[in-house]
Amino acid sequence: MSEYLKAERAQEWREALRKSIKNKDRIAIARVKMPEVDPALRSRTYDEVNLGLTSKLAVQESHRCLDCVDPTCITGCPVEINIPKFIKNIERGEFLEAAKTLKETSALPAVCGRVCPQERQCESRCFYTLKLKKEPVAIGHLERFAADYERMSGNISVPETAPANGIRIAVVGSGPAGLAFAGDMVKLGYDVTVFEALHELGGVLRYGIPEFRLPNEIVDVEIDGLKKMGVKFETNCIVGKTISQEDLKAEGFKGIFVGSGAGLPNFMNIPGENLIGIMSCNEYLTRVNLMQAADPESDTPVYKGKKVAVVGGGNTAMDAVRTARRLGAERAMIIYRRSEEEMPARVEEIKHAKEEGIEFHTLHNPLRYEGDEQGHVQRMLLQRMELGAPDPSGRRRPVAIEGETTWLEVDEVIVSVGVSPNPLIPQSFDGMEVTSWGTIVVNSDTMQTADEMIFAGGDIVRGGATVILAMGDGRKAAKAMDRYLADMMI
Amino acid sequence: MNKIVSKEYLSDRVVKFEVEAPLISKSRKAGHFVIVRVGKKGERVPYTIADADVKKGTITLVIQKVGKSSQKVCELKVGDYITDMVGPLGKATHVENFGTVVCAGGGVGIAPMLPIMRAMKEAGNRVISVLAARTKGFIILEEQVREHSDEVIIMTDDGSYGNKGLITAGVEKVIQREKVDLCVTIGPAIMMKFVSELTKKHDVPTVASLNTIMVDGTGMCGACRVTVGGQTRFVCVDGPEFDAHQVDFNEMLMRLKAYDR
Predict the structure, then answer these.
(1) Is the pLDDT confidence value at A1 over 70?
(2) What is the ipTM of this complex?
(3) C-beta atoms of A291 and B43 within 8 A
(4) Per-residue exposure over B184-217, b if at least 16 CB sit within 10 Å of its own CB, e if not
(5) Cβ A238–B85 below 8 Å, yes or no?
(6) Are A246 and A239 in contact (CB under 8 A)?
(7) Starting at the edge strand that comes first in sequence, how are the strands of the sheet with B4-9 ordered?
(8) Cα–Cα distance between A138 and A253 in angstroms, integer?
(9) Which DSSP category does A36 fall into?
(10) Please, is A21 exposed, middle or buried when counting C-beta atoms within 10 Å of its C-beta (0-12, 13-18, 19+)?
(11) CA dihedral defined by A283, A285, A289, A291, rounded to 10 degrees?
(12) For residue A242, what is the DSSP state?
């Protein structure tokens, strides 16, 4: 454990708290349940499903944390939040201090508390999970509580920044990777400008994840925080198109971080896929989330199918199918070629989807689509699958069961079978090394690319991954770019 | 940015705007387009860049009122701002000295054809422009077209100006008369389809600039997808220009009606 964490843990108030309740009593407390809106009600509105913990529930949950000598939970967090410290601050009632602790390492705590797959990250490394075989401390719920408490208090702290060093840094893309990077660099005193291609900021937080999981207001507040710290934002600016790599250099930018994401939707390239009513999850979610197509005053239209099939089993598929339900689908269906066990979506999202009446057609894979004379999709042919031997990723491979096909009536299909890296930067920048998958090659310790002044992180390096991994990359790149620039100055 | 510095009616329904956009003006090439959004509830709509003045830092857009969003843009006055404008998008036109190039532009498609015409001319091509419209009042930018063409043929459906007949008649006349090395066509999808069928018959290589439904215009959604040579392509990043003889125009025409009610 680092000296810093050790010293923090040794503070008097932490020691006093540890002694105030016996560990035996702490582990006897049951994990808190997140209050949520009733499924029948929420499947008709866009309001957030999870309501967040009350102060009382948060404090109760914080008692469970044992403030371990070796806080393994931190190693499960890609941005290494000092988890015991913020939880212990909640335990002693210092909620604003807890929020401050989050911001030491995370640019978007209110976002991460909502969308991180904690069950695979911090909470999977909790002492309760590892040693006690009990439900882990609800770290995600507590993170969300602290961030929301601060926002609602109207008393939002702006993290301290080092004196301005006048060095200009450009960030390509305002998604989680770019925002995390920008936050860290501005703290170090750099003059940071974030360039965003769309008309609004946040990347997937804005156009992808729906309001019922991540309200736009939350994204706004977190981005406002970065603005207050001095980060500048330019929307409607595509690096590589509107301005070039050379323009950035000519304008005196000394470092560039590429966080342009994996925004290119994959299609299955099966017959009939271009029929009307079949679209990528990106198109569907962009229309609804970014363009607010569900709002009757919005100029952007969107399909409101009655029998909607979403092909895929990831978080995006869950977001799309639950959105379809809210737009009035009588049957909103997930079509997934493996079984539920292999679904990459978060357990919580699958549970929420089921509660909202989403049908799960697992072990089915679309073969082709047919439409009416006007070209509107009418039905899809599904192949029944079974699970074979594990593939290199360790998941059991889906295999077609010969001759077992079935037609499913649909009037809208959303294809959510993954995304590929956005080719714009690799195509328009010189000196980038790119894999056959289209991802940018970086040194995994520093996130530095083949061009020394350019660093990259998030989905453009990983392919489609998670918000928090993108943020972790952003942090790592910031640390490394700072070192690189310091060496250059000597 | 995005301030409207001039506005001119080219016909009852077609408006020409000059918009402040120094960065786009500097980096755009013939064939590029922008995405425009008007108002906080506005949708994102693609428009081809018809011209640019790097010194003034402006680009020119020629917009036909066809629906709610184009109506909204056309209502803007000099001094107003376009809420959001992003570009230049798409791939630039492939320009080289082909020999003789026929530029077949229909209706408002004449405007995005202008920069291509100019670039083709500058590259040393003999440029023959065939302009077509329903009736005389819809032939736009004739003067500028003449400036960059060696010959101009005008076709109107009703014969009120130039020759009576469809654009294909004008194009066919040229093909039968002399060797055409390339045909570029921009206009309504149905027009491009017929031009393409004609030139295919005569083995004249043809490029069409496709105008599909778009949302982001940067390749992240696939709303604009078309089938070209049997493969799905995105018009916003792989195009907007494609080998017309490879384009599935019937599918494209069908998809254009996706949101018709």
Answers:
(1) no
(2) 0.93
(3) yes
(4) bbbbbbebbbbbbebbeeeebebbbbbbbbbbbb
(5) no
(6) no
(7) B4-9, B14-20, B58-64, B45-53, B33-37, B84-89
(8) 42
(9) B
(10) middle
(11) 20
(12) T
List the single residue in A with minimal CA-CA distance to B231: A269
Show the tokens assigned to B193: 């389809």
Q: Burial code of A282-298, b = ≥16 C-beta within 10 A, e = fewer?
A: bbbbbbbbbbbbbeeeb
Q: Report which of B69, B10, B81, B21 is spatially closest to residue B45, judged by C-alpha positions.
A: B69
CB contact under 8 A, A375 and B83: no
Q: For residue A229, what are the contacts with CB-CB under 8 A and spacing of at least 6? A: A158, A159, A161, A183, A186, A187
Q: Which residues of A touch B257 (CB under 8 A)?
A: 276, 374-375
Across A74-197, the runs of DSSP E, i.e. the strands, are 168-172, 191-195
Q: Which of A199, A275, A417 to mutate to test the interface with B (most CBs of B within 10 A)?
A: A199
How far apart are alpha carbons A369 and A275 in whole angstroms? 8
The string of DSSP codes covering A270-310 is -TTTTSBTEEEHHHHHIIIIIS-TTSTT-S------SEEEE
C-beta separation of B236 from B225 below 8 A: no
- Secondary structure of B19-77 as H, E, C letters: EECHHHHHHCCCCCEEEEECCCCCCCEEEEEEEEECCCCEEEEEEECCCHHHHHHHCCC
Q: What is the pLDDT of residue A280?
A: 97
**Closest chain B C-alpha to A368 CA, distance in angstroms:** 15
Report how far residue A479's alpha carbon sits from residue A473's, in angstroms, rounded to the nearest whole number: 10
Cβ <8 Å between A283 and B215:
yes
**Contact state of A374 with B254 under an 8 Å Cβ cutoff:** yes
Between CA B167 and CA B175 the distance in angstroms is 13
pLDDT at position A427 is 83
DSSP B226: E
A273 touches chain B (CB under 8 A): yes
Average of per-residue pLDDT values in chain A: 94
pLDDT in tens, A39-84: 988 988 888 999 999 999 999 999 999 999 999 999 999 889 999 9
What confidence tier does B175 reach under pLDDT thresholds 50, 70, 90? very high
pLDDT of residue A490: 67
Residue A317 near residue A310, CB atoms below 8 Å: yes
CA–CA distance, B166 with B195 (Å, rounded to integer): 10
